[in-house]
């Protein structure tokens, strides 16, 4: 009889996510991680867009350009935290075999992009 190494989930972080329930199919956990990483890329794009909008002289109304830039920057700062919470909630749901949480971050992102679009449209009309 051979000694088996301890199950790896005892060493995984955060324990509040990995301790409860049973190990889900790896494909689902990896899909959850890919979704998290996609939101991290989205957050980086929002930050870059906010900086570029502020730095570039696009002939927009200055106040509306600043407002659109700030909306993008704030969204880019908040998106990683929201993505991490969503990742943890989804991983816990997979481990407990319960319903998956809602995709609130997608609705939030769509709203932010819509607001920025309106600000840019107004900024170009008022310039």
Automatic annotation (TrEMBL):
Identification of the protein by name: DUF202 domain-containing protein
GO CC term (a single one): endomembrane system
Domain DUF202: 27-91
Principal subcellular localisation of the protein: membrane
Pfam family, one: DUF202
Membrane topology of this protein: Multi-pass membrane protein
Domain of life: Bacteria
Localization: Endomembrane system
Transmembrane segments: 36-55, 67-88, 100-126
Keywords: Membrane, Transmembrane, Transmembrane helix
InterPro entries associated with the record: DUF202
């Amino acid at each position: 009889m051979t000694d088996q190494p301890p199950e790896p989930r005892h060493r995984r972080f955060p324990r509040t996510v990995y301790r409860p329930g049973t190990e889900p199919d790896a494909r689902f956990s990896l899909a959850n991680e890919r979704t998290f990483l996609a939101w991290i890329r989205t957050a980086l794009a929002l930050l870059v867009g906010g900086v570029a909008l502020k730095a570039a002289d696009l002939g927009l109304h200055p106040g509306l350009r600043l407002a659109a830039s700030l909306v993008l920057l704030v969204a880019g700062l908040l998106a990683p935290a929201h993505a991490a919470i969503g990742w943890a909630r989804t991983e816990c749901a997979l481990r407990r075999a319960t319903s998956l949480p809602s995709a609130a971050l997608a609705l939030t992102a769509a709203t932010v992009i819509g607001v920025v679009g309106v600000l840019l449209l107004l900024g170009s009309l008022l310039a």
